[in-house]
Amino acid sequence: MKGVLIILFSMSVGVCFGQLKHDANWVFGDSLGVNFTDNQNPIAFKAISKNAEANASISDSAGNLQLYISYNRNYNWMQTDIRDGNHNIVANGNGVNVDFSATNGAIFLPVPEKKDSIFLFHLGIYASSCDHFRCLKLYYTLIVKGNDNRWSVTQKNVLVSNETIEESIALVKHSDELNWWLIVHGQKKSSQDSTSNKYFVFDVTKSGASFHLETSVNDHTHFYSFAGELVPFRNGSYLLDAVTGDNVVYIDKFDRCTGEIIAWDTLNLSLPVNQYVYSSAEINNHIYVTYSNYDNTSWGGGIKHFHMMQDSIVELPPVYQGSILSDFLSQIELAPDGNIWVNHWYMGFDSLLIDQYKRHISVIKNPGNIGSSLANYHFSLPSYSFPNIGLPNFPNYNLGPEGVFLANAGKDTTLCSNTNTTGVTIGVPLVPNVTYLWQPTTGLSVTNIAQPIANPTQSTWYYLTATDTTATTCAVNTDSMYVKVETCTGITETPTLQAKLYPNPTNGLLTVEVPQSAGGFTFRLFNLLGQQVLEYPLEHDKTTFPLDFAKGIYLYQITAHNWQVQNGKLVVGE
After folding, report:
1. Can you list the domains of the chain with their CATH numbers?
2. What's the pTM?
3. Hey, which end of the chain has fewer CB within 10 Å, N or C?
């Protein structure tokens, strides 16, 4: 598939923690980081952060901290710095427009298929005043790692849209597993305003280059609110939209193929005066919602528990009900250790309670079951840190395809017409509930299976159409591959170039030395069926590169730009 970063602006209406560990390090609050590399034993570490509600961090796929945001109080909490894994501000990484009080106001995302390039999507103040309660706009900043292995900001505070929006950002992977949907919601000017009651859905495609814009309306009410939280769940096919001003949590269906959002149900919490919805989390169709007292005039907050059935939602006994004046429960989030972490705040004056809240984070134990319970003060914090009220905002990096098979015609290959009379296998192994159709029919053993044999007499492009019989949208998609037919030189040694290859046999790392006088070179590797498995440019007189192939005997060919050729055998893995 080919693409550019397109941000599709469309306003319409089970969590898995697997191989990728981009969420392994949480940086939030004041000087606080938590490492989840060992899920059974999270470890706190010191970060240079002065954050409140908006928090974001990202690790590499192995779980090493790469970047995080850190507020700079010199900018009155309205701008942040971007720091690297060594806690240094990256080049040009200061002055990023992030509003510290936006609940999910910042989120990192690796640019799909662009190594060492990372987006920070963020909500920032656009102007000191506007016709909305708050003037939040959506921006992006691009951070790139250079040849010196250091990060730097190459684009900063780029305005994505002129719409004024609420304070939450969510990211959901496309059904094809390659691109991402970025989702926000418009902020209403007043309770009578209906023109800005819309979701904005942006399509972030894999190469990251340009923006495209479309609009449509959402059919939720959103009476009057700027605060809340937007949380994807159920493999990204639903959204929890906690709206503080409305004191409800909207549940929407989300189509990961088209980006369409459709209203499904509403959780009306019927909270007392002065208590407000703040945050939500979900696991195994169990939904948890925090609510809090903001004005210090009544009993504190709590955690409500709901079970989402096939066609209805059942409210279960609450996980927690505050019995302490000014018990301020804030953001909650499902962590890599399988617990739902609960950040909290205390607005009273009891020194013991202040110390307990400043030095601990609570968790919901056994989430996703009827017997969920709150473990107060579960995780002890170092004396230098303070959790504040926010938690980091993450995409769900480990989402798989949602009921849609991405057509895969396999890799391009070479058919040696002088040595191979039976043809080559194309495609990938069969996927259940998927039908296949190959075109053209020329040279194919059969056209309606996953892996036919291709034996064309001349080089041919083959096109696969795959249809997922379980999907309702994006059910049909296509891919292509190329079979190159040529006369191969076989395994005859032709040392005309006098190139040197070593070691041979090789354990996976190969060095090729070529004479400078012959000009540019290309190294190609073939298996014993004559299929090309590697092509590598030799841009220097001595080049070392890895060979990640199964053990066995291979054929190599080194071709100079002056048409000199050297062929030979190469043994891998001995």
Report:
1. 25-380 (2.130.10.10), 413-486 (2.60.40.10), 495-572 (2.60.40.1930)
2. 0.71
3. C
